[in-house]
Structures are given as C-alpha cells and as structure tokens.
C-alpha cells in the first residue's frame, strides 16, 4: 500500500520540465560520437550508444509517467497548459526526441550499418511526426502565451523561446536524416531539407524577436536573481542549434544540387549547391559568434549573482546541459567545416566541461530522489490549491481580470513541482 501511494505521489508530480533531462542526456550522446579526438572510433561509438540507450530509457520512463499522470488526474494536462510557464516546457518533448533520432542515424545506421533502408524510412516517418508536434508547440505555445497567459517584462525569462526552438532543433534533425535518405531517394531528401530550411528560418527569426525583448528586460531590470540567472544560458541553445542546422542544410543542398532532370533553373544550375553551401557556412559562423555573445552574458550574469549570494541546486539545472551541449557540437562541426585547430581544441574543451556539468547535475538529481518521495506537498501543489478559488474563469478567451492572473517567472514555473527541496549549492 505504501509503495502504491509513493508511486502515485511521484506520478502526480510529473511535469513537462522533466523532458529537459532527455534533452541534455541526448546532447551528451551526440558529443561522444562527434568528439574531435578519437572521432569515429569504436570506444567513442560505444560511449555514445550507452548514453543513447540511457536516453531512450529516460524518454520511455517519462512517457509512461506522463500517461499515468493523465490517467490518474485527467485535468492535469489542461491545468499545465494554462500555467504561464509550465506550459512552455511541453516544447522539451519533441526536442528530446530529436536527440534520439540524431544518434539513430549517425551511430546506429551510418556507423554500425544497422537497419538498412526500412530503418531510414522509419526514422523519416518519426521525424515527420516530430515536425507536427514541434509545429503544435511553435504555434500553439505562442498562441497560448498571447491569449491565455499573463506575462510581465520584469518576470520575463529566456524560457519564452522554448516553443520557438522546437522548429530549430527539428530542422537540424531533418538535415541529418536527409543525408541518409538521399542514398535511396534524392527527391525525398530534397523535400526534407527544404522543409528543414523553412523551419529554421521561422524559428530563428521569431527567437531573434523574442531575444530582442529579453535584452531590453536585462538592460532595464538587470540579471535575474538567484536561480533565475540560469535562464540566461537558454538563448545559447537557439543560436548554436540554428548555426548547426544551417550548416548541415547547406551541405545537403550542395550534395543534392544540381538536379539535371529538373525544369527549374535554380535546381538545375551547377553553381546552386555550392553557392547555398558557402552562404550557409558563413551564416553558421556568424550565428556561432552570436552564441559566444550569449555565453559571455550568461557567465557574467552567473558571476554577478554568485558574488552576492549562493545558488542552491534544483532540478532546473538540467536546462543548462542542452544549450551547452549543442554549442560544443556546433564548435566541433565548424572545426570540420573550416579545418580549424582553434575550433577543434575549443570544441573538445567545451565538450569535456559539458560532460562534467552533466555528471554533476545527474549526481545531485539522484540525491534528490528521497526528497521527491518524502515531501508530502510541493509548493506548486500548495499554490494551485490556494489559487483555485480566486482564479478567473479559464474557459474564456482572455483572463477576466489580469491582476488575478499568475505572471510567468523563472522561479515560479521553471522549477518542477517537486524541485523546491534544496540538496546542495554551487
């Protein structure tokens, strides 16, 4: 009976922010295979597979926990969607899935030769499903932010860009799959890479608009205090992942073009592929520079806050792994594109630091499990109970009284429901 009660308590506390764990773990799996020293070797491939299998287990576990939560409490999904910040983290779901698809192509299929044509087409179908989910997050997430949630500039965090980043991440996976797909169907690969270019364009443009507002928030109100300062690392993810995606898209257009059988002058022109690739490679470097800018702001903000106070460890730290992981992966990729020792060394160092960050966060997360089981009621559960009677009618298109609506903030909702227990400090 006690075991059943404990499991039910854990299941009820399943929140979308947990999907940041597969995101981060998947980025580590990709880094092992891409690591510049020993790249393509059997030991690195095995390490990548270990994290790949771990990531699949985590992904399936959180899927099962989420489904169980919805069975036990069917209204939980709607309640989370109405929350101004928890709802943003539904976007972590498709992004976590893309890391599994990436390694499935690069390591399982390309390196080990497992699966063949049927496996590639299965991954392609799964990618299209991921694109649909990403589109729901991209448009649905921003729609909810505009029409159903109440936000304020002082409480703004970079978590606003999470629904937007889904398109950027899915586009890079599309480019990875297109590389394997063109061995069987150049037409399908071209469609995939074109859709990927469309997605990264939308994602990058909208994210840039949001980050412009975020810079205004930083200038006017300063760096977020306490744990919220970690949100400054999130823009690193969209800038670095967009750069990686753009570079892959350019390389695939170079491989696919010209298509001499096409009646289009653009597709049949011999210089089209090379021109697109040069443009994309240059753009990728410019976006890498933009990512460096965000790293500098994030580190300066972290030092600024640490000088004033200690930052206590919480599960929100998982939000650090994926952005830093994709920046490491991008830097290593640029080392191959430009044959640059500078990028190669920097990418290797940053990859090691990202792995150490993953180990630190994983260790402290494991220490946190007893607290998860023993805490009778979380701060989120208490706040939901206290706001239940005073909340306006959520069925209306807009809040009846904006002053009664809960504002989005990093400390309020970036934190998982059971994340309030502190087990350490930086």
From TrEMBL:
Residues 384-426 are annotated as: Disordered. It is a multi-pass membrane protein. Gene3D superfamilies: Voltage-dependent anion channel (1.50.10.150). It comes from the Eukaryota. GO terms for cellular component: plasma membrane. It is found in: Cell membrane. Residues 388-406 have a biased composition (Polar residues). Its main location: membrane. The chain crosses the membrane at residues 17-37, 49-72, 92-112, 124-146, 158-178, 190-216, 228-256, 276-303, 315-335, 341-361. GO terms for molecular function: sulfite transmembrane transporter activity. Belongs to the tellurite-resistance/dicarboxylate transporter (TDT) family. This is Sulfite efflux pump SSU1. It comes from Leucocoprinus leucothites.
């Amino acid at each position: 009976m006690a075991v059943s009660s404990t499991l039910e308590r854990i299941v009820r506390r399943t929140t979308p922010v947990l999907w940041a764990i597969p995101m981060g773990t998947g980025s580590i799996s990709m880094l092992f295979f891409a690591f510049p020293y020993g790249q393509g070797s059997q030991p690195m491939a095995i390490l990548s597979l270990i994290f790949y299998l771990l990531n699949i287990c985590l992904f399936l576990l959180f899927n099962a926990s989420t489904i169980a939560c919805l069975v036990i409490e069917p209204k939980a999904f709607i309640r989370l969607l109405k929350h101004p910040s928890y709802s943003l983290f539904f976007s972590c779901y498709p992004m976590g899935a893309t890391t599994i698809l990436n390694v499935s192509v690069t390591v399982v299929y390309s390196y080990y030769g497992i699966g063949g044509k049927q496996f590639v087409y299965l991954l392609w179908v799964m990618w299209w499903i991921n694109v649909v989910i990403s589109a729901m997050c991209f448009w649905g997430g921003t729609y909810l932010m505009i029409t159903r949630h109440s936000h304020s500039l002082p409480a703004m965090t970079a978590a606003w860009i999470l629904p937007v980043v889904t398109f950027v991440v899915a586009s890079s996976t599309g480019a990875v799959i297109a590389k394997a797909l063109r061995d069987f169907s150049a037409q399908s690969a071209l469609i995939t890479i074109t859709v990927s270019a469309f997605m990264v364009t939308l994602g990058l443009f909208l994210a840039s608009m949001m980050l412009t507002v975020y810079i205004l928030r930083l200038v006017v109100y300063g760096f977020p205090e306490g744990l919220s300062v970690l949100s400054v690392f999130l823009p690193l993810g969209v800038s670095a992942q967009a750069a990686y995606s753009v570079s892959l898209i350019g390389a695939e257009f170079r491989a696919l073009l010209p298509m001499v059988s096409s009646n289009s002058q653009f597709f049949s022109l011999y210089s089209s592929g090379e021109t697109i690739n040069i443009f994309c490679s240059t753009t990728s470097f410019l976006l890498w520079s933009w990512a460096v800018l965000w790293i500098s702001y994030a580190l300066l903000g972290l030092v600024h806050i640490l000088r004033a106070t200690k930052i206590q460890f919480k599960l929100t730290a998982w939000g650090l792994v994926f952005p830093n992981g994709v920046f490491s992966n991008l830097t290593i990729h640029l080392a191959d594109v430009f044959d640059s020792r500078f990028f190669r060394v920097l990418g290797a160092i940053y990859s090691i630091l990202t792995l150490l960050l993953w180990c630190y966060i994983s260790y402290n997360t494991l220490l946190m499990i007893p607290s998860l089981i023993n805490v009778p009621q979380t701060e989120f559960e208490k706040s939901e109970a206290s706001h239940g009677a005073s909340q306006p009618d959520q069925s209306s298109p807009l809040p009846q009284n904006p002053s009664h609506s809960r504002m989005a903030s990093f400390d309020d909702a970036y934190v998982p429901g059971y994340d309030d227990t502190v087990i350490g400090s930086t």
